[in-house]
Amino acid sequence: MEEEDEVLVFVDSPNKKLYCRLCDSVFKDPVIVSCGHTYCKSCVQAKSDGVCPVDEQRLVVMVANIAVSEQIGELMIHCKYGCCYDQALKKYIADPTRCPMKLRMSQRKDHESDCDFMPVECPNNAGCPQLLKKDLDDHLRSCNHVNCPYKKYSCDFIGTQEEMEEHLKSCRFEGMKDFIHRIDEKVADLQMHLNQKDQEIEFLRSMLGRLSERLENMEKNVEMRFCSFSELVDRNQNKIFDEILDNRKDISALSEEMSQISMRINLGATAGAYDPISMFKCKGTFVGHLGPVWCLCTMGDYLFSGSTDKTIKVWDTSSSYKCVKTMEGHTGIVLALCTYGNKLFSGSQDCNIIVWNVDTYESSHIIKSNDNPVCTLVAASNMLFSGSLKVIRVYDVHTYELKKELTGLNHWVRALAATNEYLLSGSYQTVKVWNINKLECVRDLETSGGSVYSIAITNHHILCGTYENCIHVWELNTFNQLETLMGHNGTVYALAVLHTASGTKVFSASYDRSLRVWSMDNMICTQTLVRHQGSVACLAVSRGRIFSGAVDSTVKVWQ
């Protein structure tokens, strides 16, 4: 078989509006470029002159075209294992002797990964002929190359299934299977502990590097003071002596601390007594959505999640850890959630905001909010803020009346965050700071790392995650930029703040399928969490726990 993209046979010819002007094929990963037209992402990246063929403007990818992607996902196609290559027509056509399945493009991977007409190899021996998946069970019953299940323990038996059953009656390893199983479990546990120790050692090594840098700077400082010592003695001899003594004490303390850390690095793998940070671990997974999870929010012991499947699920996080309600009402992807009082607000690709009563889980009002999808929501100071294309709409949180529209934004508003004093919005490469009482912009914070996708606020800092994989940090009181945190290999889609006994932690979620834990005391990454099978799109915090939603349709719990 050719690779999947080559085998594409539609049941009915697609609408010509779904064809890319650059490759003259149905869109693949459609994106909206800076001039407003839609092309395949790969076509934009591969075009040598980088110019739009329609208006000759420069091609810059702005955002994925979710609406076109959904239309393409609804197109009916033949299973690739039900197609064959026609030499005369020079293309693939449906073959009535193969798989008869007709399915939507969005369901393609699910079906073709388990299609009965998929070619498979015999798991026992590569010399067996290639089979169809539906014939594998019959073949295994008659295969002459069945290996003993204890092959990895040096049992060399090979034969038919019947001979294997007879062999197991006399195999010396069969009598030890319980013992072998326990040994395998112990090996797996030891490997897990070894991986944890490797993380601890890596953390200590990073701390050692920072301490070495501080020591080197102090030594340079001492040298400079000694160089000017002769000139300063006459003016302030006692002061210089005091500062030199203080510096020597600091150097001595740092040297002692470095020695202790070096000892822990050398012995940490076996001692097991030093825990430098509180390690976050995955405590469970909520499964139930039929599509990617794009937004999360919490209220008390309940977690709300919104998905591509157009539903909002309510999860009990205190006792049963199960979905207690599925709320339906939107006709598009649920992109944003927030709570205020006993109300839940949900924003969607269908351009509406639905107000839900969290006591009854029933819809109580629909706000016809925008001409464009609602990307983000936040509620504060008796107001509901809704971010969309180049505008933030402000509603009264009780009457749902439109109070004001905040403009002057240059692209999609993908992130909002609020305090008692400020509203922060992220649009393209700018974080705008608004006075929440006057609803006026008081400050623009420019980024150098691509479009802003997420914002978080701590007691002392403002953070924003960007398209270019980095996190910018500003001081909350002065708006001075302090740091740029690097580490992710993809867009930083979400940020969340957790206050712990060991200090303030910021969690970041990324397209690279990982979460990172950042210590705001020293601005370093203390842990990387990788358990999701797809991009991590959203985060929520409740009672010392972190919840992460991802494109793999799951929500994971970390503590």
Distinctive features:
alpha+beta, 7 helices, 559 residues, four-stranded antiparallel β-sheet, globular
Beta-strand fraction estimate: 35-45%
Average pLDDT rating: 86
Major sheet, described briefly? Answer: 4 strands, antiparallel
Radius of gyration: 30 Å
Structural class: alpha+beta
Strand order of the largest sheet: 12-39-38-37
Helix coverage percent: 10-25%
User: Count of DSSP E strands?
Assistant: 39
Low-pLDDT residue intervals, each spanning 5 or more residues: 267-276
Number of helices: 7
Shape: globular
Distance between the termini: 45 Å
How would you sum up this structure, described in words?
Mean pLDDT is 86; it is low at 267-276. The chain has 559 residues and is of the alpha+beta class. It is built from seven helices and 39 strands.
